Amino acid sequence: MITVLKAPVLTEKATKVGHLNQYVFEVDPSANKIQIKAAIKQMFDVDAVSVRTVRLKGKVKSRYTRRGWQIGRTNLKKKAYVTLKAGQTIDIVSGEGAED
User: Fold this and answer.
1) Is 47 within a domain?
2) For residue 30, what is the domain's CATH number?
3) Which of 24, 38, 72, 88 is the most exposed place for a label (fewest CB within 10 A)?
4) Does residue 98 lie within any of the structural domains?
5) What is the 3 state secondary structure string of the chain?
6) 34 domain-assigned
C-alpha cells in the first residue's frame, strides 16, 4: 500500500490548489484511484473526498556523443490530485495528517 505513493509534488502549480484543500502526489503508474485513496487513508489518516489522476508521457531526449546521436525517452509518470474533507490537512514536510 505504501508503494502506491511515491512522493508529494511540491511545485508552484501544485501549491496553488492548496486553497481548494487539494494535495498532489506522484504515484505508481499502475495504481488506480481506489488504491490511491486507501494509501492516503493508511499513510496520513485522513479521508479523501475525491481523487483525480493525470498520466504524463515521457519526453523524448536526445544528445550527441562520440558514437553519434543517442535518442531515448524518459519514463511515464502519474500524478494524483487528492481532495480532502473540510477541516483536514496533510503536513507534507513532516508527513503527518492533522485535523483543525
Assistant:
1) yes
2) 3.30.70.330
3) 72
4) no
5) CHHHEEEECCCHHHHHHHHHCEEEEEECCCCCHHHHHHHHHHHHCCCEEEEEEEEECCCEEEEEECCEEEEEECCCEEEEEEEECCCEEEECCCCEEEEC
6) yes
In a domain, 78, yes or no: yes
| Number of domains within the chain | 1
Q: Which three cell numbers stand for residue 47?
A: 479521508
What is the tens place of the pLDDT at every residue in 23-33? Answer: 999 999 999 99
Range of the domain at 8: 2-89
Tell me the average pLDDT across 31-54.
95
8-16, long-range: CB < 8 A, 24+ apart: 8/92, 9/79, 10/92
Q: What is the pLDDT of residue 96?
A: 60
